[in-house]
């Protein structure tokens, strides 16, 4: 049974940076695409970023392009989300996701594995 555990969330001022980590365990995730979703209060969970199993391809929501960078470290079974130039609207619980399908086929309802989330709060 695979597990994903997020860390790195917290309170940051607008314009600041945070790096989220997602540690995978319990199975081999090297053949899984990995990514991040987020859910703000009163809103639906939305896609943020993903990286293919090979790390050859990355995908971003329009709202974070140019500010967020996703990467993965196979040796550490960890995926990262570097978040720069944070805005108030980035405030949300961020969830790590892993799925055997390529990210272009993702919908939040069909994801194979979820973490429990880490809260990011951006203050202006």
Walk me through the structure.
It is a single chain. By secondary structure, the protein is mainly β. Helix content is 0%, strand content 49%. The protein contains no helices and eleven strands. Strands 2, 4, 5, 6, 9, 10 and 11 form a seven-stranded mixed β-sheet that branches. Strand 4 (33-39) and strand 5 form a beta hairpin.
| Proportion in helices | under 10%
Shape: globular
Computed CA radius of gyration, to the nearest angstrom: 13 Å
Number of helices: 0
Characteristic key phrases:
mainly beta; 7-stranded mixed β-sheet; single chain; 0% helix
Care to give the gist of this entry?
The protein is mainly β.
What does the secondary structure layout of this molecule look like, with pairings?
Elements lengths: L2 E5 L2 E4 L4 E8 L7 E7 L6 E6 L6 E3 L7 E6 L4 E6 L8 E8 L13 E2 L3 E6 L1
Parallel strand pairs: 2-11
Antiparallel strand pairs: 1-3, 3-8, 4-5, 4-9, 5-6, 7-8, 9-10, 9-11
């Amino acid at each position: 049974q695979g597990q994903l555990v997020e860390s790195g969330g917290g309170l940051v001022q607008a314009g600041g940076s945070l790096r989220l980590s997602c540690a995978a365990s319990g199975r081999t995730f090297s053949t899984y695409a990995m990514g991040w979703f987020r859910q703000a209060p009163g809103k639906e969970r939305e896609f943020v970023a993903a990286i293919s199993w090979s790390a050859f391809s990355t995908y971003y929501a329009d709202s974070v392009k140019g500010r967020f960078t996703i990467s993965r470290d196979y040796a550490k079974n960890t995926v990262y989300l570097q978040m720069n130039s944070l805005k108030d609207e980035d405030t949300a619980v961020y969830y790590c996701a892993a799925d055997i399908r390529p990210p272009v086929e993702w919908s939040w309802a069909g994801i194979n594995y979820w973490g429990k989330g880490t809260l990011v709060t951006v203050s202006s």
